[in-house]
Write a structure and sequence with these properties.
The chain has helices at about 1-15, 20-30, 40-60, 60-75, 80-100, 105-120, 125-140, 145-150, 160-165, 170-185, 190-200, 205, 215-225, 235-245, 255-270, 270-280. The model has no long low-confidence stretch (mean pLDDT about 90). It is built from 16 helices and no strands. Helix 15 packs across helix 16 (about 270-280). The chain is mainly alpha-helical. It is globular and about 65 Å long.
Length: about 280
């Protein structure tokens, strides 16, 4: 059953149809009965709890996700060390993300800062990179741009190196975040150069349906760089509304909502983090 659900989850993740996966995985989980002290059963239970928490997070049900994460953590504490080591970095990243979207970004920052201080060498390279990237994003949300910039400078390898480990979407997200950070730091020339590099290096990816929102977003960024004052005009607002094919905040991918929130915060001259929280508060 677990293998079947994991296969379905893999397909769902590719299609971004998290709404369909949530009732499916919950239904399968409720069918199961676990035996205490059964190592195989515990691994299955931990896997289910993480999958459920993750899909609830992607569906913007952050408090519900935290409830399952609490169950996951409790089970991890009584599990074998190997299971704890397997699931703790997953738990750490997902819990930090839910804290961020429930208005507790400072707690998310402390969570990941403590993880870095305590050492993450036991984590795989993939989890170490995600911790550093997420922490940089949380610094950005807190308007700690210098800290975010300093942490981003730790990504010293080439995009091709990161692609081999993290995949192209992760590298795309990293580059988009870096562009926006440079704009906040008013390094407009650097931002413009990076937009051109992104369009050139990810042209094939930007043509795919799941990334259809990125191209219009880059065009709006370029407009903003050319004329920062225009972002508060009615003309710019109308172009933004026409540029994106939204499916509603409930179903829209969190990444798209986040980047749109940043643009909206500029249009309304409000703090980005508060605009983001307002949009995801369903």
């Amino acid at each position: 059953m677990l293998r079947m659900v994991e296969m379905a989850r893999s397909t769902i993740l590719n299609k971004r149809d998290f709404m369909a996966f949530e009732p499916f995985v919950l239904k399968q989980y409720k069918k199961l009965k676990f035996q205490d002290n059964n190592t195989r059963h515990l691994n299955v239970k931990l896997t289910y709890l993480y999958m459920i928490a993750h899909v609830l997070y992607r569906n913007k049900k952050f408090k519900e996700a935290q409830m399952y994460l609490a169950d996951l953590y409790a089970e991890m504490l009584i599990s074998k060390k190997s299971f704890y080591n397997k699931f703790y970095p997953k738990y750490l990243l997902l819990f930090g993300a839910t804290l961020t979207f429930t208005g507790e970004v400072d707690k998310a920052i402390k969570l990941l800062e403590d993880a870095r201080k305590n050492g993450t060498k036991q984590f795989s390279t993939k989890y170490q990179l995600n911790i550093n990237f997420n922490l940089a994003v949380y610094y950005f949300l807190s308007q700690k741009y210098t800290k975010a910039s300093r942490l981003n400078l730790e990504f010293e390898h080439s995009d091709s190196w990161y692609e081999k480990i993290m995949g192209r979407e992760w590298v795309l997200r990293k580059n988009l975040s870096w562009i926006i950070l440079q704009i906040e730091l008013e390094n407009f020339d650097i931002a413009e150069t990076r937009i051109r590099n992104l369009e050139k290096g990810f042209s094939d990816l930007l043509e795919q349906k799941r990334y259809k929102q990125v191209g219009p977003f880059l065009n709006l960024l370029r407009w903003y760089l050319d004329d920062p004052q225009s972002i508060t005009t009615r003309e710019f607002y109308d172009v933004v509304q026409e540029s994106f094919d939204w499916v509603g905040v409930e179903r829209e991918d969190l990444l798209n909502v986040t980047f749109y929130s940043w643009m909206k915060s500029k249009m309304q001259t409000e703090r980005f983090y508060y605009v983001l929280l307002g949009l995801v508060d369903l």
